[in-house]
Amino acid sequence: MSKEALAKDIVAAVGGEDNVASLYHCMTRLRFKLNSGSKFDKAKIEALDGVVSAVVSNGQYQVVIGNAVSTVYDAIMENHDIKGESAYVEQDDSGKSNNVIAKLFNVMSGIITPVVPTLAGSGMLKALLVILTTYFGLSAESSTYLILNAASNAVFYFFPLALAVSAAKVYRVNTFVALAIMGALMEPNFTGLINEIGDVVSFAGIPVVLMRYNGQIIPAILAIWMFSYIEKFLKKYIPSVIQMFAVPMISLLVMVPLTAILIGPFGVYVGNGIASFIDFMSNTSGLLTGALIGGGWTFLVMFGVHWGIVPAMLQNLSNTGFDTIRPPVANATFAQAGVAMGVFLKAKDKKLKSLALSSMLPALLAGITEPIVYGLSVKYKRPMIAALIGGTVGGAFAGAMNTTVMAYVFPALTTLPAFMTDTFAYYIISITIAFVLTTILTYVFGFDEGDSAEKDTTAQAPVKGERVTIHSPLKGQTLPLAKVNDHAFSTEAMGKGIAIVPEDGKVYAPFNGTIATLFPTNHAIGIISDEGVELLIHIGIDTVKLNGEHFTAHIEQGQKVKQGQLILEVDIAAVKQAGYETTTPVIITNTKDFTDIIETDQANVAKSDVILTSVTL
């Protein structure tokens, strides 16, 4: 499939360009912000050739592509009227999530992600200089070295400025005012006041503890976060005719002293405290710390919470010139590469072998593991256990030997120079352990190629002349789809069916079949009957925004179910109290496979009642 065709199909499967509020991409995946999450067709997206997986995480709708993500992104932006974002942009008030932790990690991701490529490039340049001076005789006193060293150090020295620009885009404030706020603390008049760190001077009678802010992370993020409120306040009360100069002037007048007096020192102390805590953990039990990081990193990335740890790595590099977190992280990467190698050696299916080999190369050469994680580890389950063991053992060794890295890079064979500190040999041993052990365990544990998500969700095609009855999954009052308060359902764009206004929160299997899709938020379930009917049960309208709160699933994706089996429970009263409709559309998504779909004429139904009958002539 061409990238243009894939882009078109992806946009259609997320609800069309009108449903896309904005779109950006990271190293491997498209990240959609949607107006209505109910239109995100996970099963349809994952069936597309060129898509590794579809993920709903922290309120984002993600389509995992792999190395070709930028090409697909460009194809979408060229052929569709969709707003692009360089990173995460904070939601409008109308779309705010109640999940503060999820929002925090999304913000951190949005601020740091744009800077990561420059960090990685600068880090590799720094590692190259080490090789040139150690093995090729380049003098550290030469002008050539000094110029290249300036190039490798610039992003780290001026990191607060880079973060100020990135944070300004996330918080939607004036980029150049944000840059000036942090730039003032690195300007010679300010730095000239410092004889020693911690010296105290006065600003209008208020004591100012002097700090050096080059390389600092937290002060910049906190300062621009506070500036976002100041700017919003000023724009609200200052007349528009003088806003052009008045807002920047007052912002600088307030924020520079406030940052120097309070925000900056607080941020420095917090950053140093985090770095000291990590150093304490490494020195107290490097083995345990490394084991937890090596074994758990993949899961942190899957849920998007790894961004809470990335600032700690950067702070370590800024404070000491090396970091002890990244080496155990590398073991998680090489463990996933071991999964791909194990699958390649074990698999009988040629297509699966090809997938394993093609996904292993990006992991080994670029540190990109998403195609392996979602295409192999999660899909086949037992390889994930193998990776957990391999990453844990390798990470434990790296932690026990206090292995270090001199720059922030993606762990891969191509970035080995960044790990060429005095613990380089230990690093090589640790990633070898992770890769080899995981390869062996994946081969030994095996995996059922017949249990793949693709085969699990593939039922026999509808048989001509056959009638398939669909029982009600809920007790409640029936309602025509035309009266559902959602355009995608009311227009039958997603298929024909019926809606139910539930009396209680028990949801039952409407027929014998397989759970094809269970949304991470548990608000929607896709089921395929043994006869080939593809059914969507969508509990409530826009309830995806509840992030799974009030929903309890009793089944998992890929599980076989019997008609009348309890598959999910929802607290109907709590959902209503949260301000959401509980009307539940029950849709036959492969409507085109049937010549007729007959709806019940009963006003009230229970789980034993037939609500739909599909007919193929």
TrEMBL record:
Domain PTS EIIB type-1: 4-86
Transmembrane portions of the chain: 111-138, 144-163, 170-190, 210-230, 242-267, 287-309, 359-378, 385-412, 424-445
Location of the active site: C26 (phosphocysteine intermediate)
Membrane association type: Multi-pass membrane protein
Compartment(s) of residence: Cell membrane
Single annotated GO MF: protein-N(PI)-phosphohistidine-sugar phosphotransferase activity
Main location (coarse class): membrane
Native source organism of the sequence: Amphibacillus marinus
Gene3D superfamilies cross-referenced by the UniProt entry: Glucose Permease (Domain IIA), Glucose permease domain IIB
GO term, biological process aspect, one: trehalose transport
Superkingdom, natural source: Bacteria
Ranges for domain PTS EIIC type-1: 106-461
Record keywords: Cell membrane, Kinase, Membrane, Phosphotransferase system, Sugar transport, Transferase, Transmembrane, Transmembrane helix, Transport
Domain PTS EIIA type-1: 486-590
InterPro entries, A to Z: Dup_hybrid_motif, Glu_permease_IIB, PTrfase_EIIB_Cys, PTS_EIIA_1_perm, PTS_EIIC, PTS_EIIC_1, PTS_IIABC_b_glu, PTS_IIB_1
Taxon lineage: Bacteria, Bacillati, Bacillota, Bacilli, Bacillales
GO CC aspect terms: plasma membrane
Name the UniProt record assigns to this protein: PTS system beta-glucoside-specific IIA component, Glc family /PTS system beta-glucoside-specific IIB component, Glc family /PTS system beta-glucoside-specific IIC component, Glc family
